[in-house]
Specification:
Blueprint (H helix, E strand, L loop, with lengths): L1 H7 L1 E3 L5 E3 L2 H9 L5 H12 L6 E2 H15 L1 H7 L1 H6 L6 H13 L3 E9 L4 E10 L2 E8 L10 H15 L7 E8 L5 H10 L2 E3 L9 H7 L13 H9 L12 H6 L4 H15 L1
Parallel strand pairs: 1-3, 6-7, 7-8
Antiparallel strand pairs: 1-2, 4-5, 5-6
Helix pairs in contact: 2-3, 3-4, 4-5, 8-9
Pfam families: AF1548-like_C (PF22357)
Protein name: AF1548-like C-terminal domain-containing protein
Organism: Bacteriovorax antarcticus
Length: 277
C-alpha cells in the first residue's frame, strides 16, 4: 500500500511544477549511490511513510539523504554529488578549474581561460587540454539552478566556434570539442551533438557514463561534498583554489590557518580517506 501511495502521489518540484512521483526514478537514484540492495529497499520503505500528495521534492530529497547518510558516508556523497557541484558557484570559474582537473586526471595538461585564434576571429576557450599532438577545447556552462538545461542553441553556438578554430592557426592539433556542464542537456542538444561528434559532459551525458559517473570513477569529489566541512571553511578553501577533497589531505597547515580545530580536521580526514578508498 505504501509503495502504491508513492506511485500515485503528485509532488511539487523546485520550480513549482507538479508531477507524478516516479518510483522507478527514485529507486534508480538510490542504486546509483552504490548502496547494497537491502539498504535501498529499507530506505524506499522508510521514505514511503513520508510521502503524501503535494509533498515537495526537496523534502523527499532531504529525508532520503538523512537516511543514506546514516548508512554510508560514500553513498551520501554520491547521492548529493549533483548538489555539491552546483555549490561550486555562484560564478563559473571554479567549475572551469574542476573540469580542468578531470582532464588532468585522464592524462592531459590543461590551461584555463586561453585565447586561441580561429580562421576569422579570436576565441576565449574555458579549458584547453593537450596530450602530445592532440588538443581538446572545452566550453563550460555552469548554472546556479539544477533545473536549467543546456539546449540546442548552446551546442549550435559551440559548433560554430569549433569550425572557426579548426581552420585557424591555433587549431592544427584540435581534435575534439566538449561542452561541460553541471546540469543536463535537452533531447535535441543530445541528438545534434551525437550527430556532429561534439562531446558532452553533464548530468545526463555521455549516455553510457555521465559526467557524474566519471567523477565517482576517478574520485574527483569536490570539497562541497564534505558535509562536516562548514560552509565558511569551504568558501575559504575554494578561494585558495582547493576544490577537490584529495587536495586537502596534505593541507593541514591551511586548514588550521582558516580556523579549523584539530578535532574538525581529524573528522574531515576520516571522511576524505573513506572517499578515497
Amino acid at each position: 500500500m505504501k509503495i502504491k501511495k508513492m506511485q500515485s502521489s503528485n509532488v511539487i518540484k523546485s520550480n513549482g511544477d507538479i508531477e507524478r512521483f516516479s518510483m522507478r526514478k527514485f529507486n534508480k537514484s538510490l542504486r546509483r549511490t552504490g548502496l547494497d540492495s537491502m539498504y535501498c529497499n529499507q530506505i524506499s520503505k522508510a521514505v514511503a511513510d513520508k510521502i503524501h500528495p503535494g509533498i515537495r521534492t526537496k523534502d523527499i530529497y532531504n529525508e532520503t539523504f538523512k537516511l543514506i547518510k546514516k548508512t554510508s558516508v560514500i553513498a551520501a556523497v554520491h547521492y548529493s554529488l549533483k548538489k555539491a557541484i552546483l555549490e561550486l558557484g555562484p560564478t563559473g570559474f571554479i567549475f572551469e578549474l574542476f573540469v580542468a582537473r578531470y582532464f588532468e586526471c585522464i592524462g592531459y595538461k590543461t590551461y584555463v581561460g586561453t585565447t586561441l585564434q580561429g580562421q576569422f576571429v579570436k576565441h576565449e576557450v574555458d579549458v584547453v587540454a593537450v596530450k602530445n599532438n592532440y588538443m581538446v577545447c572545452v566550453e563550460c556552462k555552469f548554472h546556479n539552478m539544477v533545473r536549467t538545461k543546456n539546449d540546442i542553441k548552446i551546442v549550435l553556438y559551440v559548433k560554430s566556434r569549433w569550425d572557426d578554430l579548426k581552420k585557424g592557426p591555433d587549431g592544427k592539433y584540435l581534435r575534439e570539442f566538449y561542452v561541460a556542464t553541471n546540469t543536463s542537456f535537452t533531447g535535441d542538444a543530445l541528438i545534434y551533438s551525437n550527430g556532429i561528434g561534439l562531446k558532452l559532459l553533464g548530468v545526463n551525458a555521455p549516455e553510457d557514463e555521465s559526467f557524474l559517473d566519471k567523477i565517482k570513477k576517478h574520485k574527483l569529489y569536490p570539497i562541497t561534498s564534505l558535509k562536516r566541512l562548514k560552509k565558511i571553511y569551504c568558501q575559504e578553501l575554494i578561494r585558495e583554489k582547493l576544490i577537490l577533497c584529495s587536495d586537502l589531505l596534505d593541507k593541514r597547515a591551511i586548514l588550521k590557518k582558516i580556523g579549523m580545530s584539530d578535532e574538525e580536521i581529524r573528522n574531515l580526514y576520516t571522511d576524505i580517506n573513506k572517499l578515497m578508498e
